[in-house]
Amino acid sequence: MNTDQLEQTVSKVFVRGKGLLAADESAATCQKRFDAVGIACTEETRRAYRELLFTTPGAEEYLSGVIMFDETFWQPTEHGQVFREYLKNHGVLPGIKVDKGLVDLPGFPGEKISQGLDGLPEQMTAYAGAGAKFAKWRSVIAIGDGIPTDECIGANTLVLARYARICQDVGVVPIVEPEVLFDGTHTAEQCEQVMARTFDILFQTMRAFRVHLPGAVLKTSMVLPGKESGMPIDHDDVAERTVRILREHVPHDLGGVVFLSGGQAPNDAFLNLNRIAKKGPHPWGVTFSYSRALQDPVLKAWAKNRDAKKETQDLFRHQLKLASAASHGELDESALHTDNFVSHAQDL
Ligand code: 13P
Question: Which pTM does this prediction carry?
Fold first, then answer.
């Protein structure tokens, strides 16, 4: 394992003011998102939409990397340059999502396990050879009546640790994502307890499986009350709980921490990140790895008028700018409340 190479990649991810674009929605997830805004979901529309995002002028000022789905990883721009080359030439690290999605965990109703370890060493060798610098694997942990069980957490963290070590053996930085779901009626306290338990088991397992922690990144949810709990999001409370849980349960020699937006309203995802960053300095780099918070308004605008390329890319850059400012605690929160940029762009 080349630990220097892994740590160098990590340092490129956590450049101040930059973060990751998660554009690794599977074809099935894309179908849902495109259906919601009335766009036909085909290989070509997925390609064209990703091209719109990746080729946004100036996006590279805010993006250190992009996570792609396998299909996108091999696709070209309309001018015939493969996306991963385009990104690399713009100083943006190409990344690849490698889990094969979720299935039920037999014997544990309501709980899931991610698939994809079979054949992964060979696939990772191919991705690394084609220029992937980092990878992502998503597991989910649901909170509900009697769940998560330790067996579910144990099964998922075992898979995450094995995946991480497979990546590192071919020089690719693993992003390990045990997403504690926002869905549910749980309290913020319950979320905090589940995240603590998940992190404890995850990092114990990663150490046991000889993962080089400074060459690995955690992708995590924030500590939130469940989406259906009826409890409002208090940004200071989210920041306080999230920072506490990370400091106490995430090893300080880990490469870094990135956040998913998890279905929060984009402004909540930006405000929460801003408050989290303001509580720094943290033991590791902290930044965003958002899909929906960056993309939702952009996808809506694109669906309304596919010819308004410049305006739609301006909107994407605007979302990136907010996430970037939030990642170092310098988001102008008052501008966010009064900002009508998004609603204006939705009228395109
Ligand atoms: P969201 O920001 O929409 O949660 O997506 C991030 C991600 O990559 C989840 O795996």
Answer: 0.96
Closest atom of ligand 1 relative to the 293 alpha carbon = 2
Judged against a pLDDT cut of 80, whether residue 341 lies above it is answered with no
Candidate of 292, 298, 322 to mutate for ligand 1, largest count of ligand atoms within 8 Å of Cβ: 292
Please say whether the beta carbons of 163 and 134 come within 8 A. no
Distant-in-sequence contacts of 80-84, Cβ < 8 A, 24+ apart: 83/50, 83/51, 83/54, 84/130, 84/131, 84/132
Residues with CB under 6 A from ligand 1: 22, 138, 177, 260-262, 290-293
Q: Taking each helix axis as running N to C, give the angle between helix 188-208 and helix 235-249, from 0 to 180 degrees, rounded to the nearest 10.
A: 30
- Number of residues that this document lists for the chain: 348
Mean pLDDT, the chain, rounded, equals: 96
Cα separation, 8 vs 5, whole angstroms:
5
Q: Is residue 338's pLDDT more than 70? A: no
